[in-house]
Amino acid sequence: MTDMSDGPVVTRFAPSPTGYLHIGGARTALFNWLFARGRGGRFLLRIEDTDRARSTPEATAAILKGLTWLGLDWDGEAISQFERAPRHAEVARAMLDNGTAYKCFATQAEIEAFREAARAEGRSTLFQSPWRDADPATHPDAPYVIRLKAPREGATVIADKVQGDVKIGNDQLDDMVMLRSDGTPTYMLAVVVDDHDMGVTHVIRGDDHLNNAARQMQIYHAMGWPVPVWAHIPLIHGPDGKKLSKRHGALGVEEYQAMGYPAAAMRNYLARLGWSHGDDEFFDDAQAKEWFSLEGIGRSPARLDFKKLENLSGQHIAAAEDAALLREVQAFLAATDGPSLTEEQIAGLARALPFLKQSAKTFPQLVEKAYFVLGERPFEPDQKAAKSLDDVSRGILGELTPHLQNASWTRDALEAAVTGVAEAHGLTLGKLAPPLRAALAGRTVTPSVFDMMLVIGRDETLARLADTQG
Questions:
Q1: Nearest to 345, CA basis, from 363, 326, 332
Q2: Which residues form the Glutamyl/glutaminyl-tRNA synthetase class Ib catalytic domain (predicted)?
């Protein structure tokens, strides 16, 4: 049997379109993407939509949207498993022809009777079909399924890059159904045929599929096809160490977008969930592609940690190029039904980003700090800010106005003008800052007053100070 570990790498992500893109699925997709992209290989997408009752076009669209937001580009068109059913059936019939599969005419009632008898006698309830070695001349004219003629002796060994060698006794594996009596293929057959036809060399997926690998290997062997390299990765757990569920918070990728985490931070964080490269925590895509290996994946379940995600998010926002960050903030606002920005607001935000991004850990925090350029005059002070705008402080701001009219509009000159007026009243700069913040932004928590003044300019600064005198 040939090995697929040499030659061009081809990986795939194969979600079922029954809902949103789960955070665990997103990490599986990321691992496949990193492994392929880091080796100049191909990353393919297959939609496993054979369950027609549960598969919906809306769920497929949600998965594609989630992958696109996450920045995981795939090669070629997404493949529909359902549309390939004739090819799956063709392979099942080829296995009939080569003697590795057989027609089974057993009814559901006969199978259940076999299992009840086995339970009563303390035997294995794995169904052993009486049709396995039957002479075709004895076949009735009745509905049948096509079953794999699985080996009964020995063991199947899954050489797994994460779990190590996993040995499963062949007496634990039944002659699984590959083609139902209505001619539709089962999931097990469809996956193998699709992976083979798509040229998949490495199957990287959750370890809940580990037992499937043993069954699927038997189909590969029956068809004389090369077996892909297996890598079954542990699932993600919540902070309490239990399997991830809704009680732990966000499960879908779109929820993380709505919470305002940059896609780069999500890629970085998800890469570190169950995989490590030394002590490196913060890294970019280029480093991740270069470093990622199956050997770096741990065997224990990873734990979701929102504090780590938020910390990484802040680092990625700070490190982002301003133009790219501006586009992502606008995409965040659009995705969360936020306001669409005017050209003037976009220009103001672009000027403010160099210092705004240094202290914001998420986009909502950044947008909140940008209120001084995104809001509109007159800036009505909120409850806290209003307290700092008493008659005395309004009077001092009135005195400050002519000093600012004549100051050269640099940080040093502005600081000197404000400090001079404050000292004339026996105040520190820190005491004059709150009413200035209230005048410029209507808030108490804002960027530095001098950063705000430099961004909005002389005329707008003076106009906002004038508004407090009304």
A1: 326
A2: 9-310
Q: Which residues of the chain fall below pLDDT 50?
A: 1-2
Domains by residue range for the chain, with CATH: 84-187 (3.90.800.10), 376-467 (1.10.10.350)
Beta-bridge partners for 177: 147
CA distances from 91 to 88, 148, 154, 304, 430 (A): 5, 11, 25, 41, 77
For 414, the enclosing helix (H) or strand (E) is helix 411-424
For residue 182, report the phi and psi dihedrals to the nearest 5 degrees. -90, 5
18, amino acid identity:
T
Q: How is residue 19 written in tokens?
A: 């809902």
Separation of alpha carbons 458 and 470, rounded Å: 19
Count of H helices and E strands in the chain? 19, 12
**pLDDT, tens only, 161-211:** 999 999 999 999 999 999 999 999 999 999 999 999 999 999 999 999 999
CB 452 within 8 Å of CB 372: yes
DSSP structure class, residue 314 = H
Neighbours of 15 (CB within 10 A): 26
The pair of three-digit structure tokens given for residue 427, joined into one six-digit string: 């105040």
Q: Is 246 one of the annotated binding-site residues?
A: yes
Active site residues: 246
- Which string of b and e fits 265-287 if b means at least 16 CB within 10 Å? bbbbbbbbbbbebeeeeebebee
Which pTM does this prediction carry?
Answer: 0.92
- Measured CA angle at 439 (ends 437, 444), to 5 deg: 35
Q: Are 420 and 403 in contact (CB under 8 A)?
A: yes
Note the pLDDT of residue 1: 45
The residue type at 62: A
The residues facing 200 across adjacent strands are none
